[in-house]
Specification:
single chain; 289 residues; mainly alpha; 79% helix
Amino acid sequence: MPQREDRAEQTAGAVVAARIAELTARLAALAPAVRAEEPDSVHQMRITCRRLRSTLRVFGRLLPDQGGGGPDAVAAELAWLGGALGRARDCEVLGARLLTLARGLSAADGREDLVADLTEWEREQLLLARPEVLAALDGPRFPALSAALAGLCAGPVPPGRARGPAGPELARAVRREYRRTARRVRAAERATGPAAEVALHDVRKAAKRARYTGEAAGPGAARFTARMKAVQDVLGRHQDAVIACHTLRGLSDGGFGYGVLYGQQLAAAARAREEFPDVWRQVRKPPRP
């Protein structure tokens, strides 16, 4: 991305294209690490997919349409790649979470049997997920995606706002994503029961997109970006606990240890819900451009 002192002289289209180029290079650099199963590589590649996808969704109008749907089509392919990576990453995270909790139980709670069951479950899930990751990277769609991203970076800047100054356009995008997140917060406040879990997950996804938009906007949006990250984090803990509960219900053989872990995850989800309003109140509406 252009440095802060250069940003005033950049067009909005040029700044967004530079952001896409930076993230595209990172995506390509991570592929060998993922193939080699280097620690955290799948996680980092998945995050890069998300950042790219958010940038295309928010700033697609500032990028050239190369045909075949342009930024929207590329964003859809990024969603496919993120999904292929996500199953492996989710298994890894959930397995580590449940095993850590299981190892903290007492022997009387059936710790040894539970740890053995969860270890085998994690191993089986990762074995199932790994081929999907490799098939995605080694098949024809990944190089085609890389080429499409490169085309968006190198294509001619479209007329209109893309040729205007970057600052006001990026600030408008940040405010737009703030409003989008706030609408989802209001919807979550009205939701009850299982619908509340879905609504809070929707808030988390909106906050994540708002955070990535703030990152693209640069240092001027740093405080907003940090506060949206805090929203994402607390709701991430909620979502992790919800998924853990669903998984434990499916795995449980009726043993006491499973019940203990389930109760712990219910409590973790409740704590995150209690913390969320205070975290959201720390978010301030970003200034007008």
